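Feature request, filed as a ticket because there's no other form

It would be nice if the structure record came with a short human-readable summary line next to the tokens. Right now we just get the raw output. Example of a typical job, pasted below so the devs can see what we mean:
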Amino acid sequence: MLIERESLPRDKLCGGGITHRGDTVLARLGLELNVPSILIREAELRFEKGSVRIVREEGLFRIVNRYEFDFALASAARKRGLSLRERESIVDYDCTHEAINVRTTAGQYRVGVLVGADGANSIVRSKLLRDRGRGICRLIEAIQTASGQELDQARSVLFDFSHVRESLQGYVWKFPCKREGANCSNYGIFDSRVRKERQLASLSGIFAGALKARGLIDDKCLWNSHPIRWFRTRELFSAPRVLLVGDAAGVDPLLGEGISFALQYGELAATEILRAFKLHDFSFSSYRKHLLKHPVGKGLSLRSAVARLLYSRWSPLLMDITRKTLALRVAGKSYLQNYLQGVLE
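Raw output as currently delivered:
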């Protein structure tokens, strides 16, 4: 049974990027979601001392509207026999040796396993860990109608890391998107906060300045903000009959990627639940170990380590090294492609 506090389809603040990793998981699940998407073929990574362009004709990743994507997932779940209860929120739960008693805004349920997939401010998590303010990234985003020039660049995205000297542990982004059939641009700012700093970056100030620099409207009435919980390897991810997944467990603190990792969390959680019923062992005592050995755990652990390093006090120097390294890789790849093309011709 799935409990959803909203009524689907519903809006959700998200850049909507699905990487090849996410598409691979969907393919393994046998899910062909008929959802419109924008294939991104070019990404500009902008730094304080220059920028690097990465181009891949087969696509770097694709962008979907979350309200369409989530609705398609929910529809697929229903077709496979799951019960979806909308406009219902979890209020509290109590665990016994035999089951979990879950209280929601609509009633009470007695279940064998409870999966906390209820976001960064997870109520399920708060019952296990009293840490609502720890490990939280900050984001702001705004949707604006695309200009003529942006329409010409509809297959490109921007990651602007040039504000690290302003204590920003992240970047400003620009993604193409569609809203009600119209071509738009999704502008946003991401601050991972993976390292404790005395002075926090002024997200609203940096974001307003970035929008003005691009000749865009900086009306705060158009802004939306939301938290993301980042992955911490030493966290508690389970309790008897309870598992945490997705934002409730923690996602990517380097770039804020969530969709692809959430799909991987789902695969792992399903495997753990099947094992629990087969062995009649609902302690989930090995969940953390299995999570850290799973591709989702390995990927998030690596990104957490890189984020802590890249968004440190050495950020300006490390960002410049990153820029130069990426530039050399791109130049080397282009040279190799041109050489091979010449040989074949």
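Something like this underneath would help us a lot:
Residues 315-344 form the longest helix (30 residues).
Residues 29 and 224 are 33 Å apart (CA to CA).
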